[in-house]
Write a structure and sequence with these properties.
Elements: H1 3-14, H2 16-27, H3 39-56, E1 59-64, E2 71-76, E3 85-91, E4 111-113, E5 116-118, H4 126-143, E6 149-155, H5 165-171, E7 180-183, E8 194-199, E9 201-210, E10 216-217, H6 218-221, H7 228-237, H8 260-268, H9 272-279, H10 292-295, E11 303-309, E12 319-320, E13 323-332, H11 338-350, E14 358-367, E15 370-371, H12 377-390, E16 395-398, H13 404-412, E17 417-419, E18 425-426, E19 434-436, H14 437-455
Helix pairs in contact: 1-4, 1-14, 4-14, 5-13, 12-14
């Protein structure tokens, strides 16, 4: 181990307590991008991160305005032209905290218990933001410089589908020029490290079924006025057959079967028992479509993730509701065009309109599938750092999730992309989200090695 690496790791170990207390400051921002009521919290969080970058000595630090919420940018380019430039991506926005009664702690306080940090965003993905800030701090404070040029791009809309990111990237191509993009949205389990190398595309939508002008008495109007809830139920029931296969016309036309080697890699990285336990179910659904590992990672999905309409309080209220609705997310296979899928969904849903009810399907996010490096020097820099820290290399696995920014970079920039994450956690997108602190510290140590490795790549 070189002195520059050991000095930075020593600094991280000596400042652990302060690091965690300071992390709570970041976690206190209720930076929920999906809720317009928290837009000011998101912007305040972005400004706070800008201040952290400036304190580290980064240049041109800014919370760059977009059509939605800001992207945090900063750069440290003093390593010189002979060293690579790494564009570092993470996101500082978080998911909503509902249902709040299920939280054992205040979601935006940052509570340490049993070597875990509990808070919304503690793992997804403020750990990616904070981990990078602390790694840069350790390298700069202990050695006076970074081993590589760095550009920071911390997004504020990832959890709401990155609606502004495509236009932002197109408008800032020159500013974002780099030799490699490092995606820091993920997790790293030291006992069984994994790197996500690909993920699905995504379409989201909100459906609204409108009937009578107001809620009306079910005794007076039942059987006379069509019930919007019934129509919403018919639409939802039309999405799948009994085997779980999606019934949108042409939905599977662009789905191509994975090659044998890819299938083997997918199956090798699939943890069926852990997923069943995490979901609290005894078996998977849709087994007739394809093996579970492929359904979870490369096959498309269509899920209703929220429903509303009618009376929700205790007891019964005898009404026919004026409106009903639901929310949809779709995960897309590699060759599916999000725009085509969105158009097919909208056409199918709105075909349920009648003379007595109106149906509107408002499309939200449209994101492409993404693909990262599966070999080469950039990935080797990550793998060597992990191996030197935890004693084994990371397994390459697909994720069933989506990271819209990576699909944008795949198609608009053509930049090689690799990944790294800071620690592991659970409860992501759920109550009682937490980050394992021992894993965080291990990730920080690996990150010091990673940036030295990236600085040594012959680009």
């Amino acid at each position: 181990m070189t002195d520059t690496i050991s000095n930075a790791i020593d600094y991280l170990q000596e400042t652990q307590d302060k690091m965690l207390e300071d992390y709570k400051d970041l976690l206190r921002f209720a930076s929920i991008s999906a809720d317009p009521a928290h837009a000011d919290d998101v912007r305040a969080c972005a400004d706070w991160i800008v201040g952290q970058l400036e304190a580290l000595g980064f240049d041109n630090c800014e919370a760059i305005a977009t059509a939605g919420l800001p992207v945090v940018y900063g750069e440290w380019l003093q390593a010189g032209p002979e060293k690579p430039t790494v564009l570092v991506y993470a996101h500082y926005d978080v998911q909503p905290v509902d249902p709040l009664p299920l939280w054992n702690t205040e979601p935006f306080e940052g509570v340490i218990s049993d070597k875990r940090m509990y808070a919304r965003g503690a793992s997804d993905n403020k750990a990616g933001v904070w981990g990078n800030l602390k790694t840069f701090e350790a390298l700069l404070r202990s050695n006076g410089k970074l081993p590589v040029n760095v550009k920071i791009m911390f997004e504020g809309e990832e959890e709401s589908g990155s609606p502004s990111i495509r236009d932002f990237v197109l408008a800032n191509k020159e500013r974002l020029k780099a030799d490699v993009l490092l995606n820091c949205d993920g997790d790293l389990a030291p006992d069984s490290p994994k790197l996500y190398y690909a993920g699905r595309g995504m379409v989201t939508a909100q459906v609204r079924v409108s009937g009578p002008a107001a809620d009306i008495h079910s005794g007076l109007f039942g059987g006379l006025v069509q019930n919007p809830l019934h129509v919403a139920g018919r639409i939802i029931g039309s999405f799948h057959d009994d085997s779980g296969r999606i019934q949108l016309p042409g939905y599977y036309d662009d789905v191509t079967e994975a090659e044998a080697a890819e299938k083997a890699r997918i199956e090798d990285g699939f943890q069926a028992e852990a997923l069943l336990e995490s979901a609290g179910v005894g078996q998977f659904w849709g087994n007739a479509i394809a093996p579970a590992a492929e359904r979870a990672t490369v096959y498309p999905t269509l899920d209703v993730v929220g429903m509303w309409g009618g009376y929700q309080g205790p007891g019964i209220k005898t009404i026919i509701p004026a409106e009903a609705g639901f929310k949809v997310t779709m995960r897309l296979a590699p060759d599916q065009d999000p725009s085509r899928v969105a158009a097919a969904l909208k056409q199918h849903v709105e075909s349920f309109a009648t003379d007595t009810v109106a149906v509107d399907c408002a499309i939200g996010e449209e994101a492409w599938y993404f693909q990262l490096e599966t070999e080469g020097p950039w990935l080797e820099a990550v793998q060597s750092a992990i191996e030197d820290t935890v004693g084994q290399r990371a397994q390459l696995v697909r994720t069933g999730g989506s990271i819209p920014i990576l699909g944008v970079f795949n198609r608009l920039i053509g930049l090689p992309i690799t990944a790294f994450a800071y620690g592991e956690g659970e409860g992501i997108h759920s109550p009682n989200e937490y980050l394992k602190l021992d894993s965080l510290f291990t990730g920080l140590e690996a990150a010091v090695r990673l940036y030295h490795n990236l600085g040594a790549v012959d680009f």
